[in-house]
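Model it.
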Amino acid sequence: MENKRANCIIEVSVDGVNGRYAVGIMNMRQALELPEMPSLSYTHPDPVKAAAGIVVSRKELAGFMACR
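Modeled.
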């Protein structure tokens, strides 16, 4: 059975010296396939929280994927 959360769309950003810069818009599965980099952050999978600017770590994002 496919995990429907894997298709939630999030924005991946890189934290730089002058702030956060968007890397791309992708689903959670694609985001977790990116190389592990401490400078990456991910918008919250809940659209309301994402619109409020809440970001999560890679570990937190993987936790959302584990929930069914």
